Amino acid sequence: MSNPSNPQNPETGSFYRLGPEQVLQAVESLGFACSGRQLALNSYENRVYQIGLEDASPLVAKFYRPARWSDAAILEEHDFTLELQELDIPAVPPMCIHGTTLHHFHDYRFALYPFMPGRTPDLENAAHIEQLGRFFGRLHAAGSIRRFTHRPALDVHSFGDESYEYLLDEGLLPRDLQDSYRHLGEDLLDAVEDIMDAVDARMIRLQGDAHPGNILWQEGPQRSLGGPHILDFDDARNGPAVQDLWMFLSGEPAQMEATLDTLLTGYTAFCDFDAAELRLIEPLRTLRIMHHAAWLAKRRHDPVFLDAFPWFNTQRYWEEHLLTLKEQMAAMHEAPLHWQAGH
Asked: Within a 10 A sphere around the Cβ of 63, how many other Cβ atoms?
């Protein structure tokens, strides 16, 4: 199977060689005067930089990894964030320059964003949780108007089957674990598919990767509550609403249910929520775990990944991965979280 992240791939090789000079040249090609200040931001899938400008606030330049999204898919993501902005929903869309939000410089595709300071939300703060719920309720009300046409759905095939098959085809698992992974993965995916078919959730446009690290919390005036902004819609796709909610839940079941009640109090002020989707939390977690392992495998030739994930593809990593998947099989057979207002 061809790996688009292999350094022998001409497009990918160029992406790996993207350096400070090319970054500044790309930004300046759009008419900006760069000061020379440049800071690489925490992003593994793409290359993202804070760029200083002469006599202006800094901006953020995002260079897209080749062979992942088509131009049409990227523009559809951009259009969604612009649509949210028009509705006063605090997403952070790219800047429209020369009539477009997606730009090309030599082999690179990139977008520019305003730089926004802030911090991650406080998930111990009930007011923050309820505000997050209100935010996603508004986002999903807009997202349910229509579906993406150039971006895939979050489903068993794209997140589960493809990930499972890729790892087996690449032969990355140690020989003594391959049969266990093959049988366990097949059983897991059958269980996930059965639950997802039974729930039959409505598919809407999602942020797709909603976790605290993708939320920028800005304080309000005089240190009032303020609110969230989402910075990254790179994983936006069609999927069930609960996908954008479950990663804000942590701890023991009682704590998760308390957080869920607060989150959905804010959410349902703007958008209905089907309590049946709570059955999808563990299946979605399972798909995320399997997809993440394949994602690391597909990026294993990227120098950034080699530095950031040195423990990947070790015997211990794969043993722990299988243990986690076994725990997920048990979790999917437990009763789902209870939402008091939903029953």
From this structure: 21
Q: What is the CATH number of domain 10-114?
A: 3.30.200.70
- Determine the Cα–Cα distance for residues 341 and 343; give it in Å rounded to an integer: 6
Give how far Cα 58 sits from Cα of 26, 38, 51, 293, 325, Å: 15, 9, 5, 35, 43
Catalytic residues: 209, 232
- Is pLDDT of 343 > 70? no
Domain boundaries, the chain: 10-114, 126-342
Q: How many CB atoms lie within 10 A of CB 55?
A: 6
**Cβ-contact 318, 177 below 8 angstroms:** yes
37 φ/ψ angles, rounded to the nearest 5 degrees: -75, 130
SS3 for 316?
helix
Domains 10-114 and 126-342 share a fold: no
Q: What pairs with residue 217 in β-bridges?
A: 119, 228
Number of other residues whose CB lies within 10 A of the CB of residue 113: 19
- Report residue 325 as tokens: 């998947």
Tens-digit pLDDT profile for residues 155-201: 999 999 999 999 999 999 999 999 999 999 999 999 999 999 999 99
DSSP assignment, residue 58?
E
C-alpha 31, offset from chain centre = 31
The CATH code for residues 126-342 is 1.10.510.10
